[in-house]
Amino acid sequence: MILPHRKIQISKLAEDIAYQFSNRNLTLLNEIAKFEDVPIHYDNYENAFDGMLLYDTDTQDFHIHINNDNGNRQDSKRGRFTLAHELGHFFLDEHRLGLKYGLLEPHASFHNINQKTLIEEEADYFASCLLMPTNKFKNHSSEYRKRTGRNGFSFDTVQTLSESFQTSVLSTLIRFGEVGTHEIFAIISKDNIVKWYVKSTDFPNWKWKFQIGGLVPPTTVAGEYYNLENKKVTTTESLKADDWFNPPPDDYRADREMYEQCFYADNYGYVVSLLWFD
């Protein structure tokens, strides 16, 4: 887990760079690499990695390698996050100098939501801040809701942000959980097993009716998907807080109507359940 003071350091560095190299909400990653004289090599490496930062001891140059075979095309959201992640390894002094002086071994970076070393978590966090700077992210979320007349919230907000910043739905959701404009809780599952979750700080700290590595509660929208022959429901559905949680009996917030909307990442087999209150 990244410590709070380290997060502040990483976000300041990443967002300062983003504001220097951006076109509206889009961070210009290729321009950043070009300015730093770091060549980017898009090639086919089968399943060896998503991205890798290498230091050439002969030329004393850094190179970024991006694996097309894993879907990291130059114009794809996945490819943009992979490149931003590798730029994180370059800009974070401990990572770059570790590679340069042999203190760190060159390592393959993979997209993996819940099995990360600290160095990979830091590069992921840098990528998130670089692609989705806090103020731009918050402002765009607020502007979208004003423009559409939606005082409430839905997965549309996340998907609109995903398109505007050219980031994946999952990385956008993770960022929204940290700096977004609405309280949310999201559960990521696969094959009826809870894999991970995203929680905003203002969402109630209730006990869960699930555990990481356990079954999805059957009365939820995601649970019905797994238990009713993979019947997809993408609309916003209302439910009670105790479908997912065990709220304290004296907590008035448990009486509010909760909403769940699912996003189905078919390419990876994940189901994302987004929960929120009006």
The major pleated sheet works out as: 5 strands, antiparallel
Shape: globular
Helix residue percentage: 25-40%
Kindly report the spatial arrangement of strands forming the biggest sheet: 7-6-12-11-9
Which H/E pattern describes the elements?
Answer: HEEHEEEHHHHHHEEEHEEEE
What percentage of amino acids are in beta strands? 15-25%
Q: Give me the number of helical elements.
A: 9
N- to C-terminal distance? 31 Å
Look at the structure and give the mean pLDDT. Answer: 92
> Which segments are poorly predicted (pLDDT under 50) over 5 or more consecutive residues?
none
Q: Which class of secondary structure composition applies to the elements?
A: alpha+beta
C-alpha-based Rg, rounded: 20 Å
Number of strands: 12
Q: What do you see in this structure?
A:
The chain is α+β, with helices and mostly antiparallel strands and about 280 residues long. About 40% of the residues lie in helices and about 20% in strands. It has nine helices and twelve strands. The chain has a five-stranded antiparallel β-sheet with strand order 7-6-12-11-9. A three-stranded mixed β-sheet has the order 3-5-4, with helices on one face. It has a two-stranded antiparallel ribbon with strand order 1-2. A hairpin with a 4-residue loop joins strand 4 and strand 5. Helix 3 packs across helix 5, helix 6 crosses helix 7 and helix 7 crosses helix 8. The longest helix is centred in the first third of the chain and has 17 residues.
